[in-house]
Write a structure and sequence with these properties.
Chain lengths: ~180, ~180
């Protein structure tokens, strides 16, 4: 349970991780993107305990990624469906899938992304919405936004200083250039 | 520690999660994309215990996302640098960041993605590399690849059956259409 650790961070990456909850939640979302919606379906697919699955589904409903809807009365049974916020999580799943296929599929590709209508094989990459330029470590940087608090601004400043520091040639003399410790945030 | 749970799964999403390790590892990678590389820098930025940070850095080196390089002798000090595999993880970070900014930045945007040279604000989306078409739940589906084992194929078949099932009008009569339990994989 790393949830509480990230709760107060302003960084959107940490917040997203905090909102989703944990590894299991991402695999549940993957199955929801596949089209599964019922408790038994998730359990069958994941081989996960009822308790754990129940906790994760409740958390995903609470954080607004899934919505619960009764599909049967007497006894009432619920389907768990992706909300617009949940559907919008697809890029994270696709990025994880593409990375896994590229770096970890030692015996070949087990799951691939295809066009729903034509069946054409797709290769997910991240681009800028406006220019469609491919975003890589060479072309982008992370910057403080308009609502950045002192914590985020301090990290950005620290990063800028460290970058200058890193560019200096290595040597014992450079130790003095290391920044003094700052308060944690 | 959910690591072992996903280790034997063939799904590339589960494998990626297994390879990265846990939430903290993703935040360490985020800081590495910022340009941080030294133990003290990560610790300062994350406010994480030495033990935990040491474990996570070792795991990220072992799984090939970071490499350790001595930047100073007597005492030896190491920098942790992104490998090509690590740099290729950027799309996951950008997808998490974009989702967090869209859905969780209640007080405004704290961290944004900018062009490294021009400073232009960027909006990361996932498209197909060949056609540059935006990939959404409406346009894609996940399919079994050439190396899919019986486990993945069974899940895909189950998903296809469930989809047909879900399209039927709700009603008590439909209970008989639910699929029998299959062996977990």
């Amino acid at each position: 349970m790393q949830r509480t650790s990230f709760a107060r961070q302003q960084c959107p990456v940490a917040r997203s991780l905090d909102c989703v909850g944990e590894w299991w939640s991402i695999v549940i979302l993957r199955d929801a993107f596949h089209g599964l919606s019922r408790f038994e379906e998730f359990q069958e697919s994941l081989g996960i305990s009822s308790n754990m699955l129940s906790r994760r589904l409740k958390a995903l409903v609470k954080s607004g990624l899934l919505q619960r809807r009764a599909y049967q009365q007497r006894p009432t049974r619920y389907a768990y469906l992706l909300t617009p916020r949940g559907r919008d999580f697809l890029p994270v799943i696709l990025a994880l899938l593409a990375w896994g296929n590229r770096h970890l599929a030692t015996e070949g590709i087990a799951v691939e992304v295809r066009d729903r209508l034509t069946g054409q094989l797709l290769d997910p990459i991240v681009v800028d919405r406006g220019t469609l330029r491919h975003l890589t470590t060479a072309t982008i940087s992370l910057a403080a936004g308009p609502a950045a608090g002192p914590g985020v601004r301090a990290r950005m400043a620290r990063v800028a200083s460290h970058r200058r520091d890193v560019r200096l040639p290595a040597g014992p003399g450079n130790r003095a250039l290391r920044l003094p410790k700052r308060a944690k945030h």
